[in-house]
Amino acid sequence: MIPRLITMPHSHYCEKARWALDLSGIAYVEHAHPPLLHMLATKPRGGRSVPVFEHDGKNYTDSTDILLRLDALGANLYPLDPERRRDALALEDDFDTVLGPHARRWVYAQLLAHSRLLLKVMTPGASTLERIAYPAILPFVKRLIRKSLRITPASAERSLGLVHQTFTQVEQRLSDGRPYLAGERFTAADFTFASLAAPVLLPPRYRGCMPGLDEVPQTMREEVLRLRATVAGRFALRMFEQHRGASSQPEKHASQRASDSP
Ligand SMILES: N[C@@H](CCC(=O)N[C@@H](CS)C(=O)NCC(=O)O)C(=O)O
């Protein structure tokens, strides 16, 4: 059976897994679901969050596990030198646990009031039924997101501070002139950073769904422009430019769907 990647169209952890899959050259189909409805696909596969990668009868329910699986299959995503490999994995873990959640919380805090934009980025690639049902359940999903991510003006501000802190750490690491985070070669550390920073940078080559810079509220747009201008922001954008190819949207995958069922 052709491997499948269960996603939410806008999720930055899904972009990380998608990027790894695209690098691996393994053919796969993407099944995108909007938040909450994704659980109909992840729960039966032993997970909760997306991405979930179904391959060879097994389910990989965490983005790092997906990358490690692809690496074991020969995708060459990590440095070969054991010390550099450990370093790349530690960076990936740090981005996964700090940058990913805090970028997400700050961006949701900016966008939860903008239902039309949310529908635009959350539903591409979903089944017809999901697309029809979603506007009706969106108000509930928004409340759920606010509650489960503990979004308040103060927590969003704190999260933005932590995003800046990660950007400063990346800048310090790059200050010795190295071209990539774990050394001389493009690795999982680089595309994990670029993917998880994407919600605050809105890179044109993001393959999932992101709002355009001109679609987001002005305060968010100003912050995105500030972050894009930093050394780390420019580095992430360069990763997309040099290592992500031309942009496309998950609708492309809709035509590849084996079925609408999870
Ligand atoms: N540690 C997980 C985190 C993934 C994650 O947080 N995914 C979010 C979307 S960006 C999600 O599925 N949230 C909904 C949920 O947990 O039910 C990974 O790296 O795969």
Question: Which sheet architecture does the biggest sheet show?
Answer: 4 strands, mixed
Q: Which bin fits the share of residues in helices? A: 55-70%
- Bound small-molecule species: glutathione
| Number of helices, where a helix is a run of at least 4 consecutive DSSP H or I residues | 11
Kindly report the CATH topology of the largest domain.
Answer: Glutathione S-transferase Yfyf (Class Pi), Chain A, domain 2
Give the second-level CATH assignment, the architecture of the largest domain: Up-down Bundle
Number of domains: 2
Gyration radius, in Å: 18 Å
User: Span from first to last CA?
Assistant: 15 Å
Overall geometry: globular
Looking at the chains present, what oligomeric state does this protein adopt?
Answer: single chain
> How do the strands line up in the largest sheet?
2-1-3-4
What is the averaged pLDDT score? 93
Low-confidence stretches: 247-262
Structural class: mainly alpha
Total number of beta strands = 4
Q: N-to-C SSE series?
A: EHEHEEHHHHHHHHH
